Amino acid sequence: MAGSWRVKAQAGAMLLALLGWVSSCVTTFVPLWKSLNLDLNELEVWTMGLWQVCIAQEEGVLECRAHGSFLALPAELRVSRLLMCLSNGLGLLGCLLAAPGMEAWRACEDRPGLKRRLLLAGGAAFGTAGMATLAPVSWVAYNTVLDFWDDTVPDIVPRWEFGEATFLGWFAGAFLAAGGLLLACSARPAGTATPPAPACRQHPTAWGPAEGHSPPPKNADLVI
User: Fold this and answer.
1) Residues near 87 by Cβ (< 8 Å), separated by ≥ 6?
2) Are 66 and 51 in contact (CB under 8 A)?
3) Residue 34 and residue 48 in contact, taking contact as beta carbons nearer than 8 Å
4) HSE, side-chain direction, 13 A CA sphere, residue 14
């Protein structure tokens, strides 16, 4: 019963982590981290990601332009690039480590200790990937809120707002962290029930005299 529960928990955790890893990869490369609607020209919508800025027009035309020099980018975008790439690499590493460690996987069946360590390492990689996804997305979102409510900027100036990739990144980081935590918890060795202690049996001589031997005479029976 416990083994069946562990197999189902590991399969669900792996599916959750894979979904988070794929979503994190999509978040890394789509130019939808921020969006900007121009009041002067409502037919254009500006979107920005870690790698490029795009302009979507009402006619369906999409024009994208890559960012300039890496050093010329704001600090939030430079760090976000590095952390998101690190998250994608850790997610791939977690898949390679956790898959052989699952009980449903037939590899290394004769070495349960190695499978447990692989599963723990994969869960730790997924959890770290989740943190590496949540940190840059939250940082960019925080700076977007600060810039949106900046009183020093005139109201006529357009403000950047959250893009779809921001919410996708939050979900991706949560899925990665939850999947890694479940994998690590399912790697705990199942408790084995201790057999009951054997009943204490007393030597037959403790209950009475052995058969064929008469008890020693009492003092009253002694003849002087």
Assistant:
1) 24, 28, 129, 130, 132, 133, 173, 176
2) yes
3) yes
4) 23
The span from the CA of 6 to the CA of 19, in Å, is: 20
Chain-centre distance for alpha carbon 41: 43
Strand order in the sheet with 62-66: 62-66, 52-57, 44-48, 34-37, 161-162
d(CA 217, CA 72): 111
Q: Distance of CA 4 to CAs 7, 116, 224, Å?
A: 5, 16, 81
Interatomic CA distance for residues 109 and 128, integer angstroms? 27
Query: What is the dihedral sign for C-alpha 67, 36, 145, 130?
Result: negative
Six-digit token pair at 92? 């791939």
Buried b / exposed e over 50-89, threshold 16 CB at 10 Å, is beebbebeeeeeeeeeebeeeeeeeebbeebbebbeebbe
**Count of other CB atoms within 10 angstroms of residue 150:** 10
The secondary element (H helix, E strand) that includes residue 47 is strand 44-48
pLDDT digits (tens, 9 = 90+) for 83-98: 999 999 999 999 999 9
pLDDT, tens digit, for every residue of 111-137? 778 888 999 999 999 999 999 999 999
- How many Å apart are CA 93 and CA 174, to the nearest integer? 18
